[in-house]
Structures are given as structure tokens and as C-alpha cells.
């Protein structure tokens, strides 16, 4: 039962997938989309879900540092509901506070250039979201 991890932003969706045993997360891609038009992501997400036999989605849930849910968190809730309805996969919201900053730190420590970091930061954040979910649920 493979899972997909999603770091959902306004313009991009970082995508990671788990191995078949649900032990590790690997970065897959970053999908450009328009948050105001879910159709802009539908086909590619459907292809990935079918190609990798995905049964569950883990959607990053960006809460405020005090635990409250702001506009980005609400957008993630809407996206998770859409995933369940349109992609027919169980969707879990997973607290993603600081994952983008942690991904940035990993890439900085690896001496990745600013230009390359920008290309992979969302995918790396998706890996961190999915891996933390897998670790907590083993």
C-alpha cells in the first residue's frame, strides 16, 4: 500500500511517494498548478496515483506556530477533501510546521545553489512530510 506525500502551495505541489512497505519516502516531482483551478493538477495526479498504485495521501497541514489553522491550513483541508472525492484515496492531514525550513537547511548544508534549491524545495518538503507520517505510524 503505497502513499503519496503532498506539499501543496499556491503555485506548486511537491510530490513524494513511499515504498511498497511504507518505510521510506522518495521525492518524485514538483507539479506546477493554479490553486484556483484544481483541474490544472487533476490529470498528472491521477497518472501518478495509478502508475504507483497509491492508496493513501498525506497532505501537509501548515498550522500556525500556536496550533491554530490559518488560510494555508484551510486550503490544505479543502485540497485533502478534493483528493478523497476526486482521486478516491484516503487523505490524511499531517502537521508540516517547519518542514520547508528544514528542507531548506538540508539543501544549504549540502551546498546546493539557490537556483537548484528553488527547483527542489517543494519536493524535499513533501519527502519530509511523508517520512514523518510514515515514522509516526509504523
Polypeptide structure, described:
This protein is of the alpha/beta class. The chain has a single domain, classed as YqgF/RNase H-like domain (Nucleotidyltransferase, domain 5). The chain is 46% helix and 26% strand. It contains 4 helices and 5 strands. The chain has helices at residues 39-51, 71-87, 99-109, 114-136; strands at 2-8, 12-18, 25-32, 54-61, 90-95. Strands 3-2-1-4-5 form a 5-stranded mixed beta sheet, sandwiched between helices. A hairpin with a 6-residue loop joins strand 2 (12-18) and strand 3 (25-32). The longest helix has 23 residues, at 114-136.
Just give the CATH class: Alpha Beta
Largest sheet: 5 strands, mixed
Overall CATH architecture: 2-Layer Sandwich
Tell me the series of helices and strands, N- to C-terminal: EEEHEHEHH
SSE class = alpha/beta
Strand order of the largest sheet: 3-2-1-4-5
The H-level CATH homologous superfamily, spelled out, is: YqgF/RNase H-like domain
- Quote the average pLDDT: 90
Radius of gyration (Å): 14 Å
Amino acid at each position: 500500500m503505497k502513499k503519496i506525500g503532498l506539499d501543496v502551495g499556491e503555485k506548486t505541489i511537491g510530490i513524494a511517494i513511499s515504498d511498497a512497505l511504507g518505510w521510506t519516502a522518495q521525492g518524485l516531482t514538483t507539479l506546477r498548478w493554479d490553486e484556483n483551478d484544481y483541474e490544472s493538477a487533476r490529470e498528472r495526479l491521477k497518472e501518478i496515483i495509478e502508475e504507483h498504485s497509491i492508496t493513501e495521501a498525506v497532505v501537509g497541514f501548515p498550522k500556525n506556530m500556536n496550533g491554530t489553522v490559518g488560510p494555508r491550513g484551510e486550503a490544505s483541508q479543502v485540497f485533502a477533501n478534493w483528493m478523497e472525492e476526486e482521486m478516491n484515496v484516503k487523505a490524511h492531514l499531517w502537521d508540516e510546521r517547519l518542514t520547508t525550513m528544514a528542507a531548506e537547511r538540508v539543501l544549504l548544508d549540502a551546498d546546493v545553489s539557490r537556483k537548484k534549491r528553488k527547483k527542489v524545495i517543494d519536493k524535499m518538503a513533501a519527502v519530509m512530510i511523508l517520512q514523518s507520517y510514515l515514522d509516526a505510524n509504523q
